[in-house]
């Protein structure tokens, strides 16, 4: 049987676009995009994506291992599953992106960019996802999930955490229970819409969606997979319809909400978060987070913690998030 990651990284056209193993049917839906269907009816349509940022390799290796086990029959598939390796050209060069950050382009925002491979890919992923959820519904599924797997540029005080996109409907209890069982340390609740893949799947398809941050970004082959035991087990139970594993983490999940999206909108933007500060480092009221012509970002609550501080983003994009505990 083929290897999803090796085939994708090779860039070669696939010789067999669809086929069967002893337990499931599989079909390539595009470069690095594989749909797996069980032969018996099932309830859930699940999308698992990784490599939307090409240098975030641990989740790609994790997902590839899961797919290998499903294809070999070692693990049974009990959901309709769409697996997406998001940005193969950037994975090949171990860079977050080639021309522009794809995780800011979803929900049609790709149309605002000068066209490039990443805008075309974002559009392709939107279309493939639409087709997948539509055909899964036609085949009788009633639940939609999307987990988009990432790793972070900086180290983090909470090593594993999730980001829930803004949504007006209540968060699904099933998803929250799964995230807890997956051993996450924290959950961040967005308060504004974004161009992320999970915002798109939640808003357009009403999927239960979460971006998962699983550790620090390292090149292929350098990841310590013992760190991913809990999330791997949770993904296994998800795709195989098994009972949730017991939460192994020592302390309960901490919930945060985003109180400030720090946007770099001017060339003279300056960020004052120290380069060595970990994600979730706290800053006190009055601390100047960033400034640019016409705007100063300060900590407004008694204390806010920083997430993803990055002064090197393109104009108009977020250079960090400020959070408070819920
Ligand atoms: O470490 C960083 O600065 C970025 C890590 C990363 O790629 N995070 C995602 C989060 C997406 C979300 O807000 O749901 C991103 O920035 O795209
Ligand atoms: Zn990422």
UniProtKB/TrEMBL annotation:
It catalyses: N-succinyl-L-glutamate + H2O = L-glutamate + succinate. The gene is astE. It comes from Rahnella aquatilis (strain ATCC 33071 / DSM 4594 / JCM 1683 / NBRC 105701 / NCIMB 13365 / CIP 78.65). Pfam families: AstE_AspA_cat, AstE_AspA_hybrid. The active site is at 213. Belongs to the AspA/AstE family. Succinylglutamate desuccinylase subfamily. NCBIfam families: arg_catab_astE (TIGR03242), PRK05324.1 (NF003706). Residues 252-325 form the AstE/AspA barrel-sandwich hybrid domain. HAMAP family: Arg_catab_AstE (MF_00767). Zn(2+) binds at residues 53, 56, 150. Keywords: Arginine metabolism, Hydrolase, Metal-binding, Zinc. This is Succinylglutamate desuccinylase. Residues 45-236 form the Succinylglutamate desuccinylase/Aspartoacylase catalytic domain. Binds 1 zinc ion per subunit. Transforms N(2)-succinylglutamate into succinate and glutamate. Its EC number is 3.5.1.96.
């Amino acid at each position: 049987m083929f290897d999803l990651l090796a085939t994708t990284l090779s860039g070669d056209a696939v010789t067999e676009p669809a086929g069967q193993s002893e337990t499931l049917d599989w079909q390539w839906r595009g470069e690095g995009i594989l749909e797996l269907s069980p032969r018996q009816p099932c309830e859930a349509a699940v999308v698992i994506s990784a490599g939307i940022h090409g240098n975030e390799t641990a989740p790609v290796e994790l997902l590839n291992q899961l797919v290998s086990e499903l294809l070999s029959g070692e693990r049974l598939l009990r959901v309709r599953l769409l697996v997406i390796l998001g940005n193969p050209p950037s994975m090949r060069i171990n860079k977050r992106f080639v021309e522009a950050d794809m995780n800011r382009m979803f929900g049609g925002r790709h149309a605002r960019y000068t066209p490039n491979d990443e805008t075309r890919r974002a559009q392709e992923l939107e279309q493939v996802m639409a087709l997948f959820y539509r055909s899964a519904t036609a085949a009788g599924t009633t639940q939609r999930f999307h987990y988009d797997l990432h790793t972070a540029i900086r180290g983090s005080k909470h090593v594993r955490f999730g980001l829930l996109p803004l949504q007006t409907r209540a968060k699904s209890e099933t998803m929250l229970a799964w995230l807890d069982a997956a051993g996450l340390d924290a959950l961040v609740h967005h308060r504004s819409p974004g161009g992320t893949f999970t915002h798109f799947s939640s808003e357009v398809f009403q999927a239960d969606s979460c971006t998962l941050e699983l550790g620090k970004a390292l090149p292929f082959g350098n990841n310590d997979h013992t760190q991913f035991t809990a999330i791997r087990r949770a993904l296994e139970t998800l795709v195989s319809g098994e009972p949730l594993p017991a939460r192994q983490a020592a302390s309960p999940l901490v919930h945060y909400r985003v109180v400030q999206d720090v946007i770099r909108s001017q060339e003279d933007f300056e960020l004052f978060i120290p380069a060595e500060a970990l994600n979730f480092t706290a800053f006190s009221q009055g601390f100047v987070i960033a400034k640019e012509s016409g705007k100063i970002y300060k900590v407004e609550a008694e204390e806010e913690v920083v997430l993803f501080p990055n002064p090197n983003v393109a104009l108009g994009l977020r250079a960090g998030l400020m959070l408070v505990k819920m």
